[in-house]
Fold these 4 entries.
Entry 1:
Amino acid sequence: MKEYFQYIPHLILFIIAIIYIKDKFFDHTDYNSMLLNGGLIIDVRSKLEFSSGNIVNSINIPLNEIASSTQKIPNKDQQIITCCASGMRSASAKAILISKGYTNVTNGGGWVSLERKINKK
């Protein structure tokens, strides 16, 4: 059993590499088109995290407030892009919004990565 533990760091690096490659090379979502057509970026990080850096024109609704803050997003058919630090909280936010009846929700993943994709020329 002990010999299996030596592979944990390699497994973690492999998973991180797969996530990076997937996000870097296989996300063909046209975020700019979404934004040009009235889309909204919702950053679900904490207020402190959001204040340390964010995407221009994104709004901050922390994940723990998203279910009770839907009045800030009255149009349930509006294109919504969720983001956070890594993509985990934004995935949860997407699920919450869909459960509340929102129909066009996309998990944009980490905000830095999303910002890079938006600003890509």
Entry 2:
Amino acid sequence: MSNHPAITLSQISKVYTNGTVALQDLNLEIPESQFVSLVGASGCGKSTVLRLIAGLGKVSSGNINWGIPQPARKLAFVFQDATLMPWANVTENIRLPLKLAGISKQDAQNLVQQALALVGLTNVADSYPRQLSGGMKMRVSIARALVTQPNILLMDEPFGALDEITRSKLNSDLLDLWQKYRWTVVFVTHNIYEAVYLSNRVLVMGTNPGRVVADIEIDVPYPRDDEFRTGLIYNQYCRKVSHCLAEAMN
């Protein structure tokens, strides 16, 4: 893994027009190819951090510095809801970012097929969202992000609405893809167990105002599997994150 920073947030504050201080003096450095999860109570600013990194909002003060210059920097965002177009089939939903970028249907075909294969949806390419399960819809959403071939992947509680069995499977699938492509991933979740399983680092955020109160390295090699999920080391890390989270909420 590279020690070269992909993203550096320095003294970031975000104050909304109603006076709400979402973030205050937040500092964060994420090296290239690292998988980092943000956990914390609702309202601690986790999603705000993602949106600021993505350029979907402006900081009130501070700086976001990039270690990956344009045009090499390619971001993709996976939202909590799949937000698929109900009138379009799986293929057309995945092709949407390429269409918006002005890439012709013919030129996009191979990229879409590759994205379908990555998430295991080749056999439902012609299906419509109403015909898919929740887990399959989220796979389409992930494929739509991956079709642009990003090197930075921002994920805002993508598996939060799924049942535990589906969530566990998609966690493992996501890790398999990350090990292959080594994106820089910033992953927001409320789920401590998910964060520990996936991440190189888990950042615990406090509230009022939002800030990082603990930075916990998960010093366990990949690949990680069900044996890791049921092991002592995993449970120790989960307890450590849980303890820091409880302190942050006091």
Entry 3:
Amino acid sequence: MSELSHIDEAGGVRMVDVGGKPLSRRRAVARAEVRMAPATARRLRELPKGDALAAAQLAGIMAAKRTSELIPLCHPLPLSHVAVTLEVGEDAVEIVAAAETTAQTGVEMEALTAASVAALTVYDMAKAIDKGMRITDLVLVEKTKEALV
């Protein structure tokens, strides 16, 4: 197993020094799902466009922008783009969050934070009618790094 990047030789926590790394274009995509009763998903699909899902979309975008305030050793990053999409299926809402930056470190934590907070917002919006919802499968699905010319 490789060394943990945020732990020093003595076992203490540390912020990774990325000062010597070159700037590169970075992108990460994360996905989460909120599993629910089919009736709950139907209710969400029937809402006027822009209601609960728009709130979750905005919450995810806002969360990505504040990731370094939530996760103690994350570097604050100049995000160039954040996108959060939500799709209501038969018995779940699928959330996909993408974050992009030009920086010395990756944006996977921002994408994961966006997806998780969007999922929490969907849960919050529907918890009154569905006590059995589950947030599942939060996963990083893509991480890219492209050198700047």
Entry 4:
Amino acid sequence: MSKILAVDDSKSMRQMVSMSLKSAGHDVTEAEDGVMALDLAKQNQFDLIVTDINMPNMNGIELITALRALPNYKFTPILCLTTESSGDMKTKGKEAGATGWIVKPFSPEKLLSVIGRVL
């Protein structure tokens, strides 16, 4: 069982991600934006982070950059789960340190498959 942080400003999306991951036996913590996620990440060690890109207060790219600056998150897998599908945005994510990119809408099977590959 892995400790996973799910970050999305949409409550329904967080719940969908959380249910998918919990059904596979993962321990999931939810955050509604990058600021909250960064605070949680500083207080806990997560095995994986799944984040949206477009969020208020601190977006996903800013969150990834901030996480990668923390010694204990240098090598933690970070997946972007977002509606953003442009090559430019994917490049920004990769440059910030994203491990992978999943475009919404997603299937729980695809999410679990990608997570299985990066953990």
